[in-house]
Amino acid sequence: MQKAIKTMLMRGGTSKGPFFLADNLPADIAQRDRVLLAVMGSPDKRQIDGLGGSNPLTSKVGIVSTGTDPGVDLNFLFAQVLVDKAVVDTIPNCGNMLAAFQNLQPKTRIHAIKHP
């Protein structure tokens, strides 16, 4: 069964992908990854059934949450969704997607805390 999940599609530099609030995704990592694969249309080299653009530059996801550690206001998790394999890799990072987050922040309910 499909379920609607709020997202915002953003471009940062040469990269593009959907951004999600972590609270809107499953907490279980395996289930979250299955959702991200379905969202992007992977594994399929054309990603015809998803938001992915059949290229690693356009098969990226940003996941944003409120920071829980002292001195950390926001957390950003980058996920590279492989186009032709059922793999979601959260080990690398992407500066372009991180830069896109700066434009996303005012449009969401997550805002950086202003320190005195």
Multimerization status: single chain
Shape: globular
Number of helices: 2
Uncertain segments of ≥5 residues (pLDDT<50)? Answer: none
Alpha-carbon distance between the two ends: 47 Å
Give the H and E element order: EEHEEEH
- Rg result: 14 Å
Structure classification = alpha+beta
Strand arrangement across the biggest beta sheet = 1-2-3-4-5
Tell me what portion of residues adopts beta-strand conformation: 25-35%
Give the integer mean of the pLDDT values. Answer: 88
Key terms for this structure?
19% helix, alpha+beta, globular, 116 residues, 2 helices, single chain
Describe the structure.
This protein is α+β, with helices and mostly antiparallel strands. Helix content is 19%, strand content 25%. The protein has two helices and five strands, in the order ββαβββα. The chain has helices at residues 29-40, 95-104, and strands at 8-12, 15-21, 60-66, 74-81, 88-89. Strands 1-2-3-4-5 form a five-stranded mixed beta sheet. Strand 1 (8-12) and strand 2 (15-21) form a beta hairpin. The chain is globular and about 40 Å long. It starts with 7 loop residues before the first strand and ends in a 12-residue tail after the last helix. The model has no long low-confidence stretch (mean pLDDT 88).
